[in-house]
Structures are given as structure tokens and as C-alpha cells.
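stage 2 :: seqdesign
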């Protein structure tokens, strides 16, 4: 991967200067593989030690707005890492909980209407997938946790055939790390980043903000693509995927060090 590792003295100083000069900072963080090391059972994927404490410290700083954006369902994401006053975007940003609102926002789809369509195909999909693949119903999506790349290919083909069978032009199939998802099309983490930043600018009369996004998966590439005047950081873990992010970190431990030292 021909990218720049963030932890080099010259680069760190440049980034420090940009962060210090920013009047407002919008910090966006993926969860699995970024804030938490991977775990075979996603329910056991605990946040890396010390990260929650660092996020709490960062949250106290004026002009810093923290958002966690994940493919997890919103309620599940908040159960994994909850801090009062930060923002959460579950289901790749299809359900958003902003700190200044009392209700959850569904910026792209009405959840009840979507579920009515999704429920028609979910049972049909479930019976077509091998039993040793765990199926996770995320409300706005279904995730199929595969054991290897061959299973990923097989599951992806099966799901794509169901989309064609039911003429669901508003659905798409995406692949991530050992997972395949079927979800609504037309909305992604990049859309969510812009939606959250614009919402805070409007709410607090902010003219500009410095966007920082950390993520590790193919779904995070949509967010990297919208970080123009800001900082995009890919968390490499054990993979070597090509990424459009400007910098990379190796794992959640280095994410912890980044949060501790730079913010």
C-alpha cells in the first residue's frame, strides 16, 4: 500500500499545526477495526483500552464535535461505546442520533417503510445461505458473516440474485472484511459525514470545520472521498487494501496513540 504512515515526526508536526489552526474540528470514527480490534463474534469487540477515556477528554474541548459512524445498528453501536453528548450514526449513516436532537433522524429512508420491503426478502435469503454463516439483522440491512473469501463470493452472488428476483433497484450488496451486506442503495458513510457536519454548522452557525475521518473498511472509502480540506486516515490492521485515504495507521492501538497525542 503506497500510503504515508502518520507516525513520522515531520508529518505529525504538519498535522498538529493544521489541527491547532482549526477553529472547529469534526472528528469522525468508525468502530470495528478502528476503535475496537476485530473479534470473531462482533458482540465481543470491545473498544481498545484507553480510547473511551481519550474521547471523553477530547469531548471537553471547545469546537470539537465527535461522531462514530458504523455499519452496526444504532442501538448496538451505542451499547458497545456510549458517551453522552457525542453523535452516533448506525447502519452506515441510515440512522443518526445527533447530540442536540431528542429523536433519531433517518436521512434517506423511512425505517418502517423500508422494513416492510426488506422483510419480504429476508426469509428467502436466509434459507438460501449455508447454516454456518451467521446472519445479523441490522434493521436497515442484513450482514452475513463469512468464514473465508470463497463464502463471501458465494453469498454475494446469492444476494445479488435476490435483488434481481425481486426487482429491488433501491438495494445493493457490498463486501467488507469477512462480511457481505445487503442494504439500501444511495446512502453511505460519505453522505452521513456531510449530513452531520452540515447539521452542526447550521445548528451552531459554524462557517467552516476541519474534518478528520478514521476508518478501516471498504465502506469507509465513501467517507474518505468527501474529506477534501481535512484529514483522512486508513486503519490498516492485517490487510493491505488500496485506499484513497491520505495517511494510515496500523491498528486500533495506534488510533489510541493518535487520539492521545494529537487531539
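stage 2 :: out
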Amino acid at each position: 500500500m503506497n500510503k504515508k504512515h502518520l507516525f513520522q515526526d515531520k508529518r505529525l508536526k504538519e498535522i498538529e499545526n493544521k489541527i491547532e489552526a482549526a477553529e472547529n474540528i469534526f472528528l469522525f470514527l468508525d468502530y470495528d477495526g478502528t476503535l475496537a480490534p476485530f473479534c470473531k463474534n462482533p458482540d465481543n469487540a470491545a473498544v481498545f483500552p484507553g480510547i473511551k477515556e481519550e474521547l471523553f477528554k477530547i469531548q471537553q474541548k471547545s469546537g470539537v464535535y465527535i461522531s462514530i459512524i458504523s455499519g452496526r445498528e444504532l442501538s448496538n453501536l451505542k451499547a458497545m461505546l456510549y458517551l453522552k453528548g457525542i453523535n452516533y450514526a448506525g447502519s452506515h449513516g441510515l440512522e443518526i442520533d445527533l447530540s442536540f436532537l431528542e429523536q433519531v433522524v433517518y436521512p434517506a429512508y423511512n425505517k418502517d417503510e423500508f422494513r416492510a420491503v426488506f422483510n419480504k426478502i429476508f426469509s428467502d435469503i436466509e434459507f438460501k445461505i449455508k447454516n454456518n454463516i451467521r446472519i445479523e439483522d441490522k434493521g436497515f440491512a442484513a450482514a452475513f458473516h463469512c468464514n473465508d473469501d470463497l463464502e463471501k463470493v458465494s453469498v454475494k452472488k446469492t444476494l445479488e440474485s435476490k435483488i434481481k428476483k425481486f426487482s429491488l433497484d433501491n438495494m445493493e450488496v457490498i463486501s467488507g472484511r469477512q462480511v457481505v451486506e445487503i442494504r439500501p442503495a444511495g446512502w453511505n458513510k460519505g453522505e452521513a459525514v456531510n449530513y452531520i457536519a452540515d447539521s452542526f454548522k447550521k445548528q451552531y452557525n459554524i462557517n467552516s470545520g476541519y474534518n478528520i475521518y478514521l476508518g478501516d473498511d471498504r465502506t469507509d472509502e465513501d467517507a474518505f472521498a468527501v474529506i477534501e480540506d481535512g484529514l483522512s486516515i486508513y486503519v490498516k490492521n492485517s490487510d493491505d487494501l488500496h485506499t484513497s485515504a491520505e495517511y494510515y495507521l496500523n491498528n486500533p492501538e495506534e488510533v489510541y496513540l493518535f487520539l492521545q497525542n494529537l487531539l
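stage 3 :: structure notes
- The CA atoms of residues 130 and 194 lie 38 Å apart.
- The longest strand covers residues 64-69.
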